[in-house]
Structures are given as structure tokens and as C-alpha cells.
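Revision sheet: C-alpha cells.
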Amino acid sequence: MTISKTTMKSFEPCNFFAVDLGATSGRTILGTLSGEGLALREVTRFPNPIIHMHGHCYWDIYALYRETLEGLAAVAREGIAIRSIGIDTWGVDFAFVGADGDLLRAPYSYRDPHTEGAMDDLFKVIPRERVYEFTGIQFMNFNSLFQLFQLHRTKNSALRAADRILFMPDALSYLLTGVCVTERTIASTSQMLNPRTGQLEPELLDVCGISPSQFGPMVQPGTVVGTLTPEVGRLTGLGAVPVIAVAGHDTASAVAAVPARGERFAYLSSGTWSLMGIETRAPIINKESFERNFTNEGGVEGTTRFLKNICGMWLLERSRAEWKAEGKPYSYDYIYAHIPEVPAFRSLFHPDAPCFRSPESMVGAIQDYCRRTAQPVPETTEEVCRCIFDSLALRYRQVFGYLKEMAPFPLETLHIIGGGTQNVLLNQLTANATGVTVITGPIECTAIGNIMLQAKAAGIVNDIRSMRTFISDSIETNTYPPQDAALWDMAFSKYLTFCKEGE
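Predicted:
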């Protein structure tokens, strides 16, 4: 897929190889930069299923390693010379390495049930407020901190034997190079990194029975980890290609690809889940951010991604699955064509209410919420969809309002990136709700961020600003100006009546 739109200063085309691993699937991507812009080509795609065994949930890191080698070998068979390799993954999970250099077992998945109750038990040792003051990270029971705390108190044999603890992208880089590092953005998802010091917090490690020496040196995105080992170079046919520690957390790579021209912007990474935030020079850790459960994750060039998780198109996807099973209309084309026919703001709900996390029936959960709050109950496919879209747009407005209150600069635009950029109707509703101009694109933000950080390491671009300028000059974006301000102000007042925080 070529995403070039303008001709820039000419230079020799350069190829980079991105490994982009999600919690359900992975892929390898070839990115080519030239004076004509950026071209992407998917080389391989593969599933990343959770392995259920003896009551636990594991990741098959060996399969991910094999798939990475197969993607590299496919490029080598085409005779393509690649400049470097970068790996990004989901957050929080990690692998153990023994003193002999071998992996000790397959890593647990964040979906493993062993952390149930661990968060509250840790707070009996270190209060919740102190943990947040150290890290500025939102509380989720599967964060690395609570995983390691639970493994420590259950005397887990792998943890007890661990010489090194490596987060997932760092573990895969280690398998390719034999070099251990701790990349800052992925470490920040652990709830163990102190964003003020830039290092893992000793008091939090101590409660887990581990020490800083068990982690590799902390490195910034764009650092060269090492080169492919002779064995990997032989297996792939590539030789000693460098491996770069890109922004190892996939969301950090995605945010690095926001095509912003300045700093006064917010971003919305839109997909099954939504993440709305800003990029700041320093963490924002205060009473408001704690009470609103905002998180401070690592960004590129020492920045902080100050953001909040929001339930996104998960609501629609779960509903569509039900309609498909029932033989009802469920295609995106049908939904987008008929939603405008339903009166706006007829019924509203809080998308992040606990009842929507994993209901047996998403449609039923939405209907129950509306019934419980004495609103009209959506019955048809079109009514449920309208309810979802209106509620999401108003939730985006609520979180955007929090960001405006806490940001150290005015917010002039909202950049939407990821798969949600294709949702034209919701993009316009989001602009209307937030009252700010929305700019959408790119769709392939994570892969682009991964590749551009490799380009930075290669000296093709100098910094995050020049990265974003190159991206902006290479892609098509769409702009949605806000409309109907008075109407959306009234709708937001209604939303606040029926949608309380913490429901």
C-alpha cells in the first residue's frame, strides 16, 4: 500500500521491517521511505492465540519468534535489503530469562485470572495513592506490578529462577540479538516506572521481591539494541541486520505517527478500544488525574502520553455479532446508511460503565441501562446503533473536557488515528460533540510509527517533529469541522443527567 501524496526532497529508497503484534494477531510489514513518501506492504499475517493450560493463560512466544523469522526470510528471498528491524506489542506482559540465557517458560497473558484480588492486597502494603504518586498510571488489575506481586507471594518458580525480566518486545528483540534492554514506553505500561526519574521505582520492585538488576538498561525509542545473531542471520538469510528499540508499546508507536504540525493537539486512537490523550513534556500527576484515573505512559523523546482508556467500537462489534447470529442487518454499510434516520440523543448511556465490560448480550446491556435510567429503550438495529454512536461521541466530549482542564496548553485540534478513521459518521459526531476540528489519519498508525522511529535511528529524520512532517506530507487526511454547537451542548447536559462517572 503506497500512501505517498507529495514529492519531497529526493533520497535513496530505504527499507525497514516492522513486527507489529497485537493481542489477537500479528503481522510483519515492509516500509519503504523515499523522496516520494512512504510505502507499506504487509509481508505476513498470523494469529496470536492465547494458550489455555492447567488453569493459566499463556502467550506462545516461540511461535511469535518463528513468525518473525518467517517474515524476515520472506523478505530475504525477494532479495530486499532492509536497513533495520523494529518490534512493537501490546503492553504489560513479560518473559523470564534464566541465568543460562534461556526462557524459563511461556509468558502469562494479561488475561490470566491469577491477579484477581492482587491489586487490593498490594494496596494493603503500599497505599493506592502512593502507587499513583510514584507512577501516574491508571489502575488495572493486570498491570505488570500486580502480576509480579502475585507471582512473588505465590512463590512462582519461574520468577524465583529469573535472572532477567523482559517486557514482550524486549524479549523478542533479545531472541533476535541476544541483548537485553528495557525500552521506556513498554516499561511505562507496567505501573512500575517512575516518569519523573525515568527508572523503575525500587519501592514497587521490592514489594514484588525483584530488583532493578533483573531488568536490562533503560533505553529510549530509536536506540539500537544490537544486530541479528549469527544463527538468526543464517536462518533468515539476512546477516547482521540491526534491531532497533522502537516505541515498543504499540500505542506509543501509533501516537508517534500523529501527523500534527504543532504541539497543541489531542489524539484519539480509535478502534475496538479508544485512547484519548495529549503529549506533554512532563507527567501530570495530581488529585484530578488520580480521581479521573488518567494514565502517564512513556512517549517518544522523553515525552509523556497523558491519556485515558475509553470503551470504543467494542460496543458495536459485540452488538453486530448478535445481529449476525439472529439474521438481522448488521453490515457497516447498512448501519451507516440508516443511523441518520433515527432521532439523535433519544437514549444515552455511559460507555465505560462496568455493565458493558463483558456482558452476555451487549444489546441487552444497553437496553437494560436505558430501562434502568427511565429512557426510551432502543429496540431496532438502527436505534441501538444511534444510541451507541451518540453515547460514544458524548463520552469523547467528556474526556476531551477533562484534557482541556488539565493540559498545560490550549487544545486546538483532535487527531483521530487507527481503524476508527474510516468511521466517517462517528468522526463528524466527535467533532460536533467536542466542538473542535477533527483531523483523521493515518489508519496504519502503529506500523508507520514503528518504521519512522527506525528511520530516525538511521538518520533519515532528525526528531519527532520532522517525523510528523514527513508523515503529514506522505498521507491523505480528512478534516471534520464542528457543527450544531447549541444542539450538542443540550445533548451533553442530558448525557450528564443519565451517565454518572463510576457507574
